[in-house]
Amino acid sequence: MELIFATNNRHKAEEIQRLIPRSIRVLTLEDVGLTEELPEDQDTLEGNASQKSRYVYHRLYRSCFADDTGLEIDALGGKPGVFSARYAGDGKDPEANMDKVLKKLKDEDNRRARFRTVISLILDEKEFFFEGVVEGHILREKRGDQGFGYDPIFLPEGSSLTFAQMPMNMKNRISHRSRAIKKLANYLNQYNNPS
Ligand code: IMP
């Protein structure tokens, strides 16, 4: 069976392929020749993930899934959330995005935040959602140079290292994305091997 992942990020596709049965082959948009940019203009992570998976489904009528991730900061009413990539402008500049967060939280003591990933899967013409969350805090300064995005300012709960100070395999074990992917993978494993 083939399952299309609405992404052009091969690294993300490989991460998922490692967790699901080999009899389910994960294809990227490039693999299936979908080159246009997918619409992603909803105001929730669920809405965006769903919009992308439905778009691909209605173009190809094949099983597919899409994800969307955001950093939700309590003191900012859940922002940047769906706007995480472009928080400081269309340049999608991670340094500028982090600087904007740090500035907005300058005099704020409540630094609770979470990364949340939502996956929308369309299988047998039905839609299913999977969510992965990692709770944590926003630091007052950047720490570490691994990872991407907001990793240097995010301290996951129970850790003394930011995401940007962790080796990739350590981050991957606990991250929002891997938690959502594991739920998707469990579902697909059961789907593939009903008992
Ligand atoms: P996407 O939905 O995976 O493209 O993520 C949207 C945006 O959220 C990214 O451009 C990053 O700014 C941020 N983001 C997503 N995942 C992570 C992460 O694991 N670490 C840090 N930032 C992230």
What does this entry look like structurally?
With 195 residues, this protein is of the alpha/beta class. The chain has one domain (2-192): Alpha-Beta Complex (Maf protein), CATH 3.90.950. It is 31% helix and 23% strand. The chain contains 5 helices and 6 strands, in the order βαβαβαβββαα. The protein has helices spanning 10-19, 45-60, 94-104, 168-174, 176-192; strands at residues 2-5, 25-27, 64-73, 112-123, 126-138, 154-156. A 6-stranded mixed beta sheet has the order 2-1-3-4-5-6. Strand 1 (2-5), helix 1 and strand 2 (25-27) form a beta-alpha-beta unit. The longest helix has 17 residues, at 176-192. The mean pLDDT is 95. The structure holds inosinic acid. Inosinic acid binds next to strand 3.
Spell out the blueprint of helices and strands.
Elements: E1 2-5, H1 10-19, E2 25-27, H2 45-60, E3 64-73, H3 94-104, E4 112-123, E5 126-138, E6 154-156, H4 168-174, H5 176-192
Parallel strand pairs: 1-2, 1-3
Antiparallel strand pairs: 3-4, 4-5, 5-6
Bound molecules: inosinic acid.
Inosinic acid binds at residues 68-71, 84-85, 115, 147-151, 163, 175.
